[in-house]
Amino acid sequence: MKKILFASDLDNTLIHSHKHKSDSDICVELYQEREQSFMSQEAVTLFQNMTALENICFLPVTTRTIAQYQRIFFPDDYRPEFALTANGHILLRKDAPEPEWLAESQQKNKPYLPEFERLAQIFHQDMRFRHVSIADGMFVACSCETSETADICLAEYQHSTALHAFRTGRKLYFFQPCADKGTALAKFKSLHQFDVIISAGDSEMDIPMLKQADISLFRETQTDFAVSVLTLVLDTALS
């Protein structure tokens, strides 16, 4: 059988927020004892079928921090052996950071730490921003009250820094320019052998990752994208 790497974004790709929740959806994340993220029943069944196959390596590739990623509980208490968090800066193996990967990311980020600090200080003083942080020491993350406000703030700040700026919904991210999900996936591929690489995502930050795959899917509608993605992975694995 083909050995498949399924490298996928999580939020709005395999899981979704309460904003898009249906009554029959299954909770896969709690935050402060509140239901936070969900999968449809059909997606859960397909996910269970996928993880039962030994020839598929599921690699979550997410901008979430380690703590945010570890809040997710996949169906049947399944835990991927590997996960790329912090937009690919951190490789987890069995939920623990791989030391060499982490050290390399920290070294590459070191020249940009003063800029992270500078932006974070500015954003803390700008009342339009909420929850400003330097996420796991790897990038600046913040949010606004509305996506419209985030759009305005992005336009104001993206040209005043050497960092690469992105917006997803109400959230803004500022990354060092030499690292992205595609770079991380390329590095992971070089360390393992796979016959086919499938990737899925929903935002501009996912595009470099999608370009590294043999088969890629980009979400363009609010339908149950997870079902389409997981069906494709299973069909490819069983063909």
Word description of this protein:
The structure is a single chain. This protein is α+β, with helices and mostly antiparallel strands and about 240 residues long. It is built from eight helices and 14 strands. It has helices at about 40-50, 65-70, 100-110, 115-125, 145-155, 180-190, 205-210, 225-239; strands at about 5-10, 15, 25-30, 35-40, 55-60, 80-85, 90-95, 95, 130-135, 140-145, 165-170, 170-175, 195-200, 215-220. About 40% of the residues are buried.
Keywords for this entry:
alpha+beta, about 240 residues, 8 helices, four-stranded antiparallel β-sheet
Quick recap of the structure?
The protein has about 240 residues and is α+β, with helices and mostly antiparallel strands.
Structural class determined from secondary elements: alpha+beta
Put simply, the count of helices is: 8
**H/E element sequence:** EEEEHEHEEEHHEEHEEHEHEH
Oligomer class: single chain
Helix share bin: 25-40%
Rg calc: 18 Å
Question: Sheet bearing the most strands, described?
Answer: 4 strands, parallel
Beta-strand share of residues:
25-35%
Going across the major beta sheet, what is the strand order? 5-1-13-14
- Total number of strands: 14
